[in-house]
Task: inverse folding
């Protein structure tokens, strides 16, 4: 067992030095002989044991005595610990690849590959993103009526639903990635706008009216809001200008937005969004997955097309 | 003998940057080299890197002169009658092989050995047994591993062609009573080859007084560079022997059909020689002579006595060979039943920077016959100190507590 342990440790160390590389080779030799049930006759294990003991004895005689006595069980323990940590490391790498977090989809907790937890950051950062208290039920589209929300490629088999807010940094990060993915894959893309502050939102109404007036022009409007300076978004002059640039008449849109009917319809829509149980933006529904927080692009792609998304 | 001053001549024994120098106790395998030898070798490569004997230019002449001088130095060192009795070889092993291959053998010829020969003085004779039906006989040692003179005398009765024996054993440091061995052999019409690999570095060798027919030893155990050894042979015997390795430099002239060999020693020195080694060997001998071989032997025995006594405090440790350290020269070979000898050696190296040898020391036959797996061998030389042997003992006591 000691040969196996040494092989593993030395293989790792051999990245750093040539001496360890040749020792690792000896250890492998030793392992292979072990495996075929011949005694380990390279003398390798003896050599390493003696070296380790020789080192430990200079620090603590008792330690060396214990080590000598329980060498094999200690080797076993070491290998079990190693296998355990290796399992978690491999699992972490896999989960990070697939979900953007070492601990699984939307799980926070420390992850070496994402030490600042970027891929799980959502709304609950100050004023800029909407905060909704998480509900009891899991986040899902079940029972949510999506008709009436802006949608692209409505009849595609594959479905992406994006809940986002123009002013939310993380939504702004995720939006172009998800939009692009939808475009490339031909999946349907439904956009559920959710304002930072529910009570005072003009943009929800403007969006509602714009989509109703011209569904084609609507998307360039959304793109503009997501890419604009955050401070400008609620500025009236800016809104006018953006509407004009998108090909709308700001007057008619303003008229529509002020209509109590619109207010009522938008409220209904926002209530529908809340039904998903989401608790922050961005929240992206792709096929059966719910991805909360901005993820690396591959994570959205994997959710849509599976692990081998890049081969398609 | 001023050991502290002597140690300054050996680069490895000088502590550098506050590092503790190595405790080198593997001298039976190879000795360390003093600066004088290193410089002699370097001088050859820097100033006279040429062929001796073949070319006529000044560099070649200078090398020829130095090689000649070196041969003279070795001859004097051995107290040989003439320098032509000195043949340069690669090492002891080659020297023994030379004799084994240069004599004419008949089936049934008896070669007499001891029961603890180094493989270098065993395998060449085993090959003769295979090729010519030569018969090998072994003189059993006394229970304490000393030479059994009466068993030897008995063995001689049966008719022996050659007595080939290790003068000093690399296993336990015991020397055979060589003068007596030679005298008795000659009395019975046998010739004698002495493997002096462990003798030449440690005690005065007088081949004339010994009257041995051949004596072999290596340079690397006596401060000289590796790759140089010596075969001493009585001139008239060398003259009568067939050459062993043949080719360039061994002949006076040749035709397509035949050749005319040069007299010894050239007859046996085929091909370009190890000039740097030869010159280095002479420098080593001069260094040893300056210190004096009697002083060296005395120092080693005193150290061995101290070490052997101190080792009694290591529980279970058994020394191979006689209890009297004076009979074991500079070698202390020991084992602790149930404790792996390699592990001890490796731990000594790791924990205290002590270099010893572990294993069967090329005397497998002796270990195999006794079912002893191997031993740890501490072999001393004149630059070793009591403090170093103390460190060995202290480390062993610690190891014993753990293993
Ligand atoms: C007694 C004895 N004979 C022969 C030899 C072989 O010497 P070399 O390897 O230099 O030929 C040794 C070397 O350890 C030795 O100790």
Result:
């Amino acid at each position: 067992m000691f040969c196996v342990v040494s092989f593993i440790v030395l293989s790792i160390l051999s990245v750093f030095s040539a001496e360890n590389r040749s020792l690792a080779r000896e250890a492998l030799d030793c392992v292979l002989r072990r495996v075929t049930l011949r005694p380990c006759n390279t003398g390798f294990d003896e050599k390493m044991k003696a070296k380790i003991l020789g080192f430990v004895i200079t620090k603590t005689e008792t330690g060396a005595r214990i080590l000598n006595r329980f060498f094999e069980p200690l080797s076993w323990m070491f290998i079990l610990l190693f296998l355990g940590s290796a399992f978690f490391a491999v699992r972490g790498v896999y989960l990070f690849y697939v979900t953007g977090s070492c601990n699984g989809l939307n799980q926070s907790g420390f992850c070496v590959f994402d030490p600042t937890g970027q891929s799980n950051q959502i709304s609950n950062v100050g004023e800029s993103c909407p905060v909704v208290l998480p509900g009891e039920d899991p986040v899902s589209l079940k029972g949510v009526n999506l008709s009436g929300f802006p949608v692209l490629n409505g009849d595609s088999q594959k479905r992406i639903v994006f809940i986002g807010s123009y002013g939310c940094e993380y939504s702004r990060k995720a939006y172009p990635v998800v939009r692009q993915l939808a475009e490339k894959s031909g999946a349907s893309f439904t956009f559920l706008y959710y304002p930072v502050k529910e009570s005072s939102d003009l943009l929800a109404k403007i969006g509602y009216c714009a989509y109703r007036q011209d569904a084609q022009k609507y998307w360039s409007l959304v793109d503009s809001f997501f890419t604009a300076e955050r401070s400008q978004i609620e500025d009236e002059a800016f809104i006018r200008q953006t509407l004009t640039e998108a090909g709308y008449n700001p007057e008619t849109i303003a008229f529509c937005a002020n209509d109590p009917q619109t207010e009522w319809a938008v409220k209904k829509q926002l209530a529908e969004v809340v039904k998903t149980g989401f608790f922050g933006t961005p929240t992206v529904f792709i096929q059966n997955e719910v991805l909360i927080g901005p993820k690396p692009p591959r994570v959205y792609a994997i959710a849509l097309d599976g692990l081998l998304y890049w081969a398609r | 003998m001023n050991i502290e001053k002597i140690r300054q001549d050996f680069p490895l024994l000088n502590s550098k940057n506050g590092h503790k120098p190595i405790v080198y106790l593997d001298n039976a395998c190879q000795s360390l080299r003093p600066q004088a030898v290193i410089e002699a070798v370097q001088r050859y490569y820097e100033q006279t890197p040429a062929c001796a004997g073949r070319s006529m230019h000044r560099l070649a002449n200078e090398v020829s002169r130095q090689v000649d001088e070196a041969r003279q130095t070795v001859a004097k060192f051995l107290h040989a009658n003439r320098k032509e009795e000195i043949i340069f070889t690669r090492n002891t092993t080659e020297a023994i092989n030379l004799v084994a291959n240069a004599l004419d053998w008949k089936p049934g010829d008896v070669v007499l050995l001891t029961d603890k020969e180094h493989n270098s003085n065993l395998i060449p004779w085993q090959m003769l047994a295979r090729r010519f039906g030569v018969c090998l006989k072994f003189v059993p040692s006394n229970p304490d591993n000393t030479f059994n003179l009466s068993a030897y005398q008995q063995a001689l009765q049966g008719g022996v062609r050659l007595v080939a024996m290790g003068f000093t054993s690399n296993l336990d440091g015991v020397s055979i009573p060589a003068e007596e061995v030679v005298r008795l052999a000659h009395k019975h019409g046998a010739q004698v080859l002495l493997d002096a690999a462990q003798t030449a570095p440690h005690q005065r060798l007088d081949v004339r007084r010994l009257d041995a027919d051949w004596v072999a030893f290596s340079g690397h155990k006596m401060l000289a560079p590796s790759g140089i050894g010596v075969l001493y042979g009585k001139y008239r015997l060398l003259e009568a022997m067939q050459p062993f390795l043949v080719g360039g430099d061994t002949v006076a002239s040749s035709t397509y059909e035949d050749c005319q060999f040069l007299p010894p020693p050239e007859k046996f020195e085929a091909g370009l020689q190890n000039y740097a080694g030869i010159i280095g060997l002479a420098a080593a001998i001069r260094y040893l002579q300056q210190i004096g071989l009697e002083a060296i032997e005395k120092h080693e025995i005193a150290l061995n006595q101290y070490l052997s006594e101190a080792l009694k405090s290591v529980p279970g440790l058994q020394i191979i060979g006689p209890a009297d350290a004076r009979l074991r020269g500079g070698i202390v070979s020991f084992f602790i039943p149930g404790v792996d000898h390699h592990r001890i050696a490796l731990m000594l190296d790791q924990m205290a920077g002590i270099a010893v040898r572990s294993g069967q020391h090329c005397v497998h036959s002796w270990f195999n016959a006794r079912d002893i797996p191997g031993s740890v061998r501490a072999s001393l030389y004149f630059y070793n100190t009591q403090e170093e042997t103390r460190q060995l003992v202290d480390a062993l006591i610690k190891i014993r507590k753990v293993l």
